Structures are given as C-alpha cells and as structure tokens.
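Quick question: what would this complex look like in 3D?
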Amino acid sequence: QSVLTQSPSVSGAPGQRVTISCTGSSSNIGAGYPVHWYQHLPGTAPKLLMYGNINRPSGVPDRFSGSKSGTSASLAITGLQAEDEADYYCQSYDSSLAAVVFGGGTKLTVL
Amino acid sequence: QVQLMQSGAEVKKPGASVKVSCKTSGYIFTSYDISWVRQAPGQGLEWMGWISTYMGNTNYAQKFQGRLTVTTDTSTGAAYMELASLRSDDTAVYYCARGAMSSSSGGDYWGQGTLVTVSS
C-alpha cells in the first residue's frame, strides 16, 4: 500500500490527452513538499519528467505538464505518442514517515 | 555529460551481503546528494535512502535500518550501497540517482540499474 495513490492504469489514443493523478495527504503533498514525476520504461533507468510540481527538465517536451492542488498532484500528457507508453511514478516526501515516498505507479497504454 | 555507471549484476545467497557501486562523472560530485531506489519484480519504485556527498550524513528508510549502509568515496566520485542479511524478497533492480529526492529538484540523473538476485 503506497503512501501516494495512483490509478494502476490509464490509456488513450494517439493525439489524445490523458491525466495521471497522485493523491497524498497532509503529511506529504498537502504539507507543501514538492512532487516529482518519473517516466520508467522496462529495462531502462527512470527518467525525471517533472520536478517541483510544475517544472520540466531540459529536453522534456512541453506536451507534459504538472499541477498540484491541496493533497493531490497531476501529470497531464497532451498529443499522446506511442513513445509515451511507459510507467509513470509520482514522488514526494512524507514528514510523518521522515522518508521519500513513491506512488504505486500508473501504466500508460497508447491504444 | 552527467553519467552514473553502476556495477554489474550480482547473485547472492540468503544471508549474504551485496555491495553495489555507482561511479559518477560529468559534474562536481560533492555538489549533489546520491539516492538509492530499488524495484522488485512486478513492483513499483521503492526509496531506500540517501547520502549527503558533502557532509557524509545519511538517511535510510525505516525498513532498511540496520541492514543498509550507503557510503561515498569523494576522491573517485563514487557511491556505494551495501545491503546485508539478504532475503529472497531483496531480489530487485537497484538504482542510484543524483539528488536527494526530498529536495525541490528530485533525482535528475539515474544509473542504469543493477540486478541483484537472492537465491539459494
């Protein structure tokens, strides 16, 4: 049971928009700790996709955007492409656990 | 360019220890912390701990307390993760990442991963 809750899967057709949500609590996202998002393809290293809730690292397309409200955060992907098919993880810090926490991951399928 | 290169796959027996290295290049080693994350088969990412490469202090996840030791060699720009008393459920791919994931910048560069298999 992950401290941050993500839907196990989401899907969309090429060109469509999908949103991946990450729900936390008052001891992590709601406490103001930043949320980061990672894209992970099997057999490769995870890739930082979004940091500090809304910031894209250099090289990440602007099709990816992040948002945060209250105890939740979201990653939106517009103009879906086949190469976006991967697992996506949110990550933050939890003050009650005094630990970094990950969401359980969301598998994105591009139909 | 920034690179984190990890040591090769390991096969260990239950009860043994494993030490995984993470050799960095392309940046000033002591300017960024190093975090360790693992992924067991069919599971998600799990944070294990981090080390301040500048100060040397560490922070470990509760479940690894007493079994995990993270160290660095600032002369070579390398970080090490040693996990003791291995069990079958420690079978996983272990990753090092640049940055303390509790910071505002997350883990921005990752090693390629090291598969550790624990089997009798």
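Answer marked as accepted. The interface with chain A takes residues 35, 37, 44-47, 50, 59, 61-62, 95, 97, 101-113 of chain B (CB under 8 Å).
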